[in-house]
Amino acid sequence: MRRYDAMRRAGRIPHVVGVALEGPLLSSHGGTPADTVWAPTRSEWERLARLGEYGLCYMVLSPDAFSAASDFHGQTYARHPGFEWVVPMLLGHGVRPALGHFTRTDPRLSAHLVKDIVDIAWDAEWNGAGARVVTDHLFNDMPLNIRHAFRTTRAREARGATLASYDLPGWTLDAMDEIAGPVPAAIMREAAAGRIAACINFDGEHVDLAIASRAVSLMGLDNSMMMTDRCDSARLGGQDLTQGAENGLWYQDGGIVAAGSQPLAQQVRNAMDHDIKGAGLWDLAAGTAHRAFGLTPSTRARCRTACSPPPTRSGPPSQSRTPPDAGRGTHPLLRRTGGADGPLRIGVLVSATGANLRTLIDLQHRERDRFQVALVASHGTRSPALALAREHGIEAWPGDFDARCGTASAATTPEARAEYRRRARQWHDGLDARMAAWERENGELDLVVLAYHRWIEGNLLTRYHGRMINQHPGDLTVLDGENRRVLIGNDAVATAMRLGHTTTRTSCFLVDGTHDGGAVLCQGPPVPVRPGVDARAQELDQKRLSDRPCLEWSVRAFAAGSLALAAGTHPDASAVVLADGAPLPLGGMRLTAASIPEGS
């Protein structure tokens, strides 16, 4: 903890705002290693509490730890203090108790003990800021009257009927004791009253998303915090973990869930899919946590860039091409890792000919002090771009995506599509882990450029949030009557020609987890559709006349550090892009043939 505190004070880890401990006082240790669970003595509690000075934010403890059903029963003596002493000791040093890991023997007693601890906390002196009490993840490791998760194929087959029997729309806080059980009911009521801040996992595997969404609506999104116990390693706390084919959870021996694998960005998308949007989504993903842990305005500003949710589709769209508040609440896109004076280190994910890779290599050759293509990877083995990278001495990785995941076109049922997405996310998580290991050996990438024909979800998207861009062959400013983008997907050029467009153009946008829905940074010059030309020939013209200048402008803007996102949105709900502080219209920087220097 002292080492963490020194790094924090030196500004080396601005996005790690605190540390939490799961245990040691856990009456049911669940996924926590058994040898890290014990009943601390008075002197041990004092030592643990003093870690609040070094950044310890909260400790998970079990309200029923001293009950007859607890593993500690018969093992505590006079030197082991009760909660009437422990809770004020922790709070006096700025450490919050976090409630979790319950026994299942006497739910009503456990629920009564939840309220006792909250009462003790609110009567004690609080030497901190924000919430006095938080929780471990709601519905996990506690006695329940309902099935809260559907983690196997057989369970998922019964999910619809099971949820229908629960009558989720009819849930009320007053009836939660009978519906879900006394313990979740006690936590949800205390949260709704603003006396605790409740954590809940939105990965869809710890808790079913329909149940999680209904729970946070009852507690209030401003009292609820999205949480993740994501683990990137098959070993945790000295114990080996395994993953099965049915879900992305990590398991200990005995089939006990030890951790998850999904990043916060995926949880944000899950919440959006369940109609949690706008300010409520921000509260759930970050705002409640900021308040609960008393983060200062400067810390919130640093954190918001890293964890802000994707633009949402809620509320009436702005009718202004550049919203009047576009310049407020700006967030710079690029966090340079190699120093402002070094070259922009670029990774490229490729699928086809390598035309965009060629543009980047040419930039590198012309301006070696500003640009470096450091790594190239593909989902397949036959992309000419891989050979192009090797010709220029760039490390290039082929992939086995189709062999491992199949193809999206072959997934024709909802179940098949869900399984394809699961395999695709798992494959890209593997690529993310490989890239992370490569970066540790070779230095971090500043920017990842996609010329890539596979949707990306999971850890890879999270790692490069705010610094992953995609070259798209369609004009993403073309909207339908409901302000939705028309020219998305792989056949954007053919669609434009079928609709009678006389020109086509390339759009470079920020990848954010939506399907071609991110903020558009730049558009290449429009390319006239020649009489009698087919879509393939038109796309080749566009690669030469629109792709190249569009990508060059975007990469140069990243290298210069001139791009930022504003708080305002366009009619399609994408974020407004700023260039050198000035808001750009929908479509970002719109290049014309006349604006491209001769010979570029």
Describe this structure in words.
With 600 residues, the chain is an alpha/beta fold. The protein has 2 domains: 2-228 and 263-307, Metal-dependent hydrolases (TIM Barrel, Alpha-Beta Barrel), CATH 3.20.20; 334-562, Rossmann fold (3-Layer(aba) Sandwich), CATH 3.40.50. 35% of the residues lie in helices and 16% in strands. It contains 19 helices and 24 strands. It has an 8-stranded mixed β-sheet, with helices on one face. Helix 4 runs parallel beside helix 8, helix 8 packs across helix 9 (209-219) and helix 13 runs parallel beside helix 19 (535-560). The longest helix is centred in the C-terminal third of the chain and has 29 residues, at 414-442. The chain is elongated, with a radius of gyration of 26 Å. The model is unreliable at 297-329 (pLDDT under 50).
CATH architecture of the largest domain: Alpha-Beta Barrel
By CATH, the topology of the largest domain is TIM Barrel
Q: Strand order within the widest sheet?
A: 14-13-12-15-16-18-19-24
Helix content: 25-40%
Give the termini distance in whole angstroms.
53 Å
**Structural class by secondary-structure content:** alpha/beta
Main sheet characteristics: 8 strands, mixed
CATH class of the largest domain: Alpha Beta
Helix count equals 19
Rg over alpha carbons: 26 Å
CATH H-level superfamily title of the largest domain: Metal-dependent hydrolases
Strand content: 15-25%
How many domains is the backbone divided into? 2
Low-confidence stretches: 297-329
Question: Kindly state the mean pLDDT as a whole number?
Answer: 86
Shape: elongated
